[in-house]
Batch of 2 targets.
Target 1
Amino acid sequence: MDAFLSREDQEFRFRMRDFFQSEVPSEIRAKVSAGQPLAKDDIVTSQQILNAHGLAVPHWPVEWGGKDWTPTQRYLFTEELQFNAVPLPLQFNCYMVGPVIAAFGSEDQKRKFLPRAANCDDWWCQGFSEPNAGSDLASLKTRAVRDGDDYVVNGQKTWTTYGQYADWIFCLVRTDPDAKKQRGISFLLIDLNTPGVEMRPIITLDGRHEVNEVFFSDVRVPAENLVGEENRGWDYAKFLLANERSGIARIGLSKERVARIRRRAQAKGVWDDPLFRAEVIRLEVELKALEVTQMQILARAGQGDNTPDPASSILKLRGSQLQQRASELLMELEGPAALRAPGDVTDAHGAAEEELAAAAALNNYLNFRKVSIYGGSNEIQKNIVAKTILNL
Ligand SMILES: Cc1cc2nc3c(=O)[nH]c(=O)nc-3n(C[C@H](O)[C@H](O)[C@H](O)COP(=O)(O)OP(=O)(O)OC[C@H]3O[C@@H](n4cnc5c(N)ncnc54)[C@H](O)[C@@H]3O)c2cc1C
């Protein structure tokens, strides 16, 4: 990639690299690199450092803290951020609700929410999925009924990532039960401290508490918290999901994992095995191909159109497959030691370096099963590609 970069872009890349390495605390970056779970404070601290230098939300409109960068610079920023193991600015704030409010929200909503989202003063979570509305999201049932100046919300959301840390949730709610499925949905911002909201933890395969269920019982939400027009929420959700999907490709992160695989393989003497080496190189080549696709999509997105790009489904699909492939190669490298390792690297106090690496491989492997499910499962991405790109 570097061979195709202008001198200006190469300098930009090195400036970003220097910044990430010198300004973001090495303890936080070491956690990301080792695949350890991050505390809320790690994510907030890192995002606030970026924001203090105007780098938390470079893809937002310039008046709300964005940068007038080229698509290549935007790509290089994200790649360097991930490659240097800096935590991504909180996805829910920066890549989901922020861009939706900037594009479709009222001026009051922009002033009230955008600066706080960019600085992670408010932690947002995503209330889309329900027990019977995941892939078929448009069949969601959580109801919002207008009553004077409020909406009254009843229903349940599930799989709410980091809901336990959140101050606000952006929700898709049904405002017109008689309209065709997609037409009766609205996009509502709900303060999680409102009476009637209850959050319950879900513990996942890897023993972590990352996701939750959220219950709403007669929750009164001021009507001014409706984003855009009533019953147009599906359009805003599609815009948001396209942003979420391109973010999920995480090419820089996969490159960081490949660099780790190389280091571990060399340390363990496995790098001399031509079959293993071929697998790693195959992964690197596939990452390069995805990178080129990502650049093309970014170039189109830079043309100022809010229409969701169906090609973001390719990024999500391929990016998640490659992240999982990297996690499998790490497991292969650690071998049976990974299966004997403590389930959580944070419990492995005093463990030898070998044991920590094995535990990180196991955590990473289990935790990354999710990437082919969230943001719309990979089967659903294939359906989108078949319909909208291949016209099948
Ligand atoms: C770790 C994690 C974090 C998440 N975080 C959030 C969050 O913060 N907020 C949020 O709103 N949601 C979140 N989700 C929910 C996620 O978006 C859904 O899990 C996802 O959309 C799939 O929905 P489902 O789980 O109901 O599965 P289902 O929709 O029930 O699907 C089950 C299986 O059937 C397949 N399938 C379904 N329909 C089709 C079809 N038409 N064609 C082919 N195959 C099909 C699916 O691919 C899947 O394999 C999270 C999920 C996970 C696992």
Target 2
Amino acid sequence: MSKQPPSYYLKTSRAFSPLYKYAWLLTVLIGIGGQLFPLLGLLVPFIMAALLATSLFKGKYWCGNYCPHGSFFDNLLKPLSRHLKVPQLFRAKAFIIFVLLFFMYNLAARFINVYDAMGTGEFYEKLGLIFASTYLMVLLVGGLLAVIINTRTWCHFCPMGTMQILMYKLGKALGLTNKTDKKVTLEQPDLCRSCGKCARVCPMQLTPHQNFSENYQFDDEQCIRCHICIESCPPAILSLANRVKEAPHRESI
Ligand code: SF4
Ligand code: SF4
């Protein structure tokens, strides 16, 4: 039997904040517990509001630092993941938009179904179950993809992630990100070895070293600010920084 070649992507651990280390408990509580106690699902709109508000100021920072599902993928499933390349389909704009529209259509159709129960004691339970079931679906589908492909496969097309990018664009247009948006930043360009390790450890399979902007920041809107590239860079020349000031003179790397 032919041996599978090692993956280009490296499975690397990173430091977790106490909040992010245990945020996965919320996923289990809502996704599984919500099937028995549907009112738990009513926590989800608050989580959605928090992540959308965060993205106005900090892009997809939520995904790498607070997201309960992200915590589930990173904390529990990483050891089991095959850590392979995420198929191009899951990164395609058309697919990402399709998933967002399908998600919204599905949610709207289910809301209409429970509308009849409005004003009855059952209404909030039925509403909660919609959100709890959605949470469970992400836990199951995202979890399966995390194991058979890569930990953050789901995050490439997650409807909440896409909505965060839209809010981020709005935040940038309104200037809300100016003081709060911290991006991966190349602090000492001359010391970059072009080793590509920042790309090999990136759970979103991005390529920071090839895409720094004029002021040496990584502007990719899919970046979840997870710090893994920063912690893994051999010469330790990356940081998460806000650099809305004049661009330094760019020298060749
Ligand atoms: S890991 Fe660091 S040294 Fe290597 S390419 Fe990325 S920024 Fe440059
Ligand atoms: S570029 Fe760095 S901070 Fe951004 S998602 Fe990839 S590893 Fe995380």
